[in-house]
Design brief:
This protein is an all-alpha fold. Helices cover 72% and strands 0% of the residues. Helix 3 crosses helix 5. The radius of gyration is 15 Å and the shape is globular.
């Protein structure tokens, strides 16, 4: 579990990126992003924040149009992942399994920075 200091730091970072990039994501939804970062590991805070903020509107639109059958997977996952709410789990499904958003498609060829690669490798080593 992440301590209060880490959560405050993460929320400040998400808020600054949200403002800087004019993403217009609400405070409630920025808190959901922080919960997702805590779930994956604080060392991945930068790429997760950027991915979610830059694609928030399109992915949220998809989730808002979910049918009951679309929600079945999120509901199943939530039974074993009580730290995330239903919407956050749907967000994960869309990011990991859904079609690329327009923004993801535009950035398909962008290479990760050395810092991002190190954080991913470190996270994989800890698993």
């Amino acid at each position: 579990m992440t301590n209060k200091y880490n959560r405050e730091f993460l929320l400040e970072y998400v808020e600054s990126e949200n403002k800087k990039n004019e993403c217009n994501v609400s405070l409630e939804n920025m808190n959901k992003i922080v919960s997702l970062i805590e779930y994956f590991g604080i060392e991945l805070y930068r790429p997760i924040t950027r991915l979610l903020l830059s694609n928030w509107e399109e992915i949220t639109e998809r989730i808002n149009n979910y049918t009951e059958s679309d929600w079945m997977m999120a509901d199943e996952i939530q039974k074993t992942t009580s730290t995330l709410d239903r919407f956050s789990i749907a967000m994960l499904i869309e990011v990991l399994e859904g079609e690329d958003t327009l923004n993801q498609a535009e950035n398909a060829g962008r290479r990760l920075s050395e810092e991002e690669l190190k954080a991913i490798r470190k996270h994989q080593d800890e698993q």
